[in-house]
Amino acid sequence: MGRFLTKVKKIFLQKDTDTDFVNLHNTHHLNSKIQTFNEKTITEATYEKTLSELGGSFDLVHRSFNQDEIHIIYLSSLVDSHTLEWEILSPLREMSFNNLDKSFQQSLFKRENNQKEVINGILDGNVAMFAGENTYLINVSGFEERSISQSETETVINGPHDSFNEALKTNVSLIRRRVRSPRLKMIKLSVGEISKTKVLLIYIEGIANMDILNHLKERIQSVKADSITDSNVLIQIIDDHQHSPFPQFYTTERPDIAVTKLYAGKIIGLVDDSPTIFCTPSSFFDFFESPDDYNQRWIIGTGVRILRYIALFITLILTAFYVSICTFHYEMIPQSLLQSIMQSRSRVPFPPIVEAIFLEIVIELLREAGARLPTKIGQTIGIVGGIVIGQAAVEAGITSNILIIVVAVSAIASFIVPSYIMSSSIRIVRFLFIFTAGFFGNIGIFFTLGLLTIHLTGLTNLSSPYFMPVSPIFFKDWMDSIVRGPFYKIMKGQPAQSLMQNDAEKERN
Q1: Could you tell me which residues are beta bridge partners of residue 114?
Q2: How do residues 169-213 score in pLDDT, each as one tens digit?
Q3: Per mean pLDDT, which range of 101-110, 250-259, 300-309 is the poorest?
Q4: pLDDT band per the 50, 70, 90 thresholds, residue 284
Q5: 439: Cβ contacts below 8 Å, ≥ 6 apart
Q6: Which residue, 109, 273, 129, 246, is CA-closest to 192?
Q7: Which pLDDT score, from 0 to 100, does residue 368 have?
Q8: Of all helices (H) and strands (E), which one includes residue 458?
Q9: How does the average pLDDT of the chain come out, rounded?
């Protein structure tokens, strides 16, 4: 008898942990907890309780059959009406209560007597059927979803043009079409106390780092929030460094990029009702890669990728360098150009830092206006607004024409970064360079550049170095991060960031 009670206590404590109940601190409460355990965790499902919990919903449907011996409850907005009529309503009209068990022995029907699971099943688009003491969940879900279309934020010239949408099953099918292997594994999680948002972690068994997978799983399960509306919200919550302006999780809407990350040993996460997937472990250099790099000759891909890194420095430093030399370092300007700059600035009553910040803010306003307006109108506003405002500002003596050229080049350089989230982060950091250049000159620029490098090398993504393979150094991975090397070199082995920490250190040595 004592052994039996000990086993019951162990089972209860384990179940208590799994269901997020408060752990028991006092053993004298254990017996009372065991007595009420079944009432709290396993409540017998009935149609009265179900109607009471889901009451107040305009799409709630309750129907009875066979002289009120059979009840079905479902949400009309979540089910497919044709499947409902064909699989459930028509058979129930002709079915007797005695033949119920024989008729419902199909994969479409699942017996479930737990009240909590029945409610969750109805909210997932199932029909709950109550027949005597048994309850069945019948999958006839029919969610409305957006068709597969081309991504508007990640366009490519050569390569696939399909993108993810908001339906989790559709997104999984896009990945399954590209990875036809039983080694493709998935872990289903739920996030949000109210929303119960589904999160799917996908990886390739034998390639992915299981330590990183378990770490990511624990991080997601520890999220305490009422609702998670998008994958971009989730990754901000589980970031290692939430106060950094730089994104630590790589995100994309393209299935081909997601599959490429899977083959590289990384883990991708899908969030229901979100067309964006996230990838881990990610590095700073992942945000400067594009599918076009791999769909053309490696020499061209390398040249374009190096051009993006040059654009990074241009958008960060160019405007700040103009402010610096016009404020402190006139001796750095060639004599032939100095006269033109002085003539251009002769009518401007503001110091260079005020002039530069004003134009940068105007550019950001035009950029946001173009992004929020409809596509055709947004392009017109961006082009016409930039020309009109720039010309009017020069004629009014508010700014110089040379600074307009500098700011325009800096803005164009920011558009070269393939990731919109990274591009937005760089645009914000650019203002810090302008401020330090306006107060401290070139010393301020190099000081800010040093702080930025220290910050980037100190970031991690699920405890994986964010600035890898530059810090720490893995020269082998430079062929597929800094440049785009030939396929016979970049397809050998996994990136060091996807390996276990001890294996990565061995490879480094």
Answers
A1: 44
A2: 889 999 999 998 889 999 999 998 888 899 999 999 988 999 999
A3: 101-110
A4: very high
A5: 353
A6: 273
A7: 82
A8: helix 442-458
A9: 81
Distance separating alpha carbons of residues 433 and 448, to the nearest angstrom: 6
Q: Which helix (H) or strand (E) holds 278?
A: strand 277-280
Under 8 Å between Cβ of 355 and 400: yes
Alpha helices in 105-191 (DSSP H): 115-123, 168-176
For the whole model, what pTM was predicted? 0.78
CA-to-CA distance for 246 and 269, rounded, in angstroms?
Answer: 19
Specify whether the CB–CB gap between 115 and 49 falls below 8 A. yes
DSSP 24: P
CA 116 to chain centre: 29
Q: What percent of the chain is predicted at pLDDT more than 70?
A: 85
Q: Which one, of 245, 253, 248, lies nearest residue 281 by Cα?
A: 248
User: In the sheet that 267-271 helps form, which strands lie side by side, from edge to edge?
Assistant: 184-191, 197-204, 267-271, 277-280, 250-252
- State which amino acid sits at residue 451: L
Q: At residue 142, what is the residue type?
A: G
How far is 434 from 436, CA to CA, in rounded Å? 6
Task: Give the C-alpha separation, 346 to 219, whole Å.
Answer: 58
20 has a pLDDT exceeding 60: no
pLDDT one-digit tens code per residue, 460-494: 998 889 998 888 888 888 888 888 888 877 776 67
Indicate the length of the chain as a whole number: 509
Could you say which DSSP state residue 90 is in? H
Residue at token pair 């965790």: 41
Question: Angle at the Cα of 238 (from 234 to 243), degrees rounded to 5?
Answer: 105
CB-based contact 500:209 (threshold 8 Å): yes
Q: For 5, list phi and psi in degrees, rounded to 5.
A: -65, -35
Cα 178 to Cα 262, 267, 293, distances in angstroms? 11, 16, 19
Strand, coil or helix: what is 320? helix
The residues pairing with 187 across neighbouring beta strands, listed in sequence order, are 201
- Spatial CB neighbours of 430, under 8 Å, sequence gap ≥ 6: 315, 316, 319, 320, 360, 410, 414
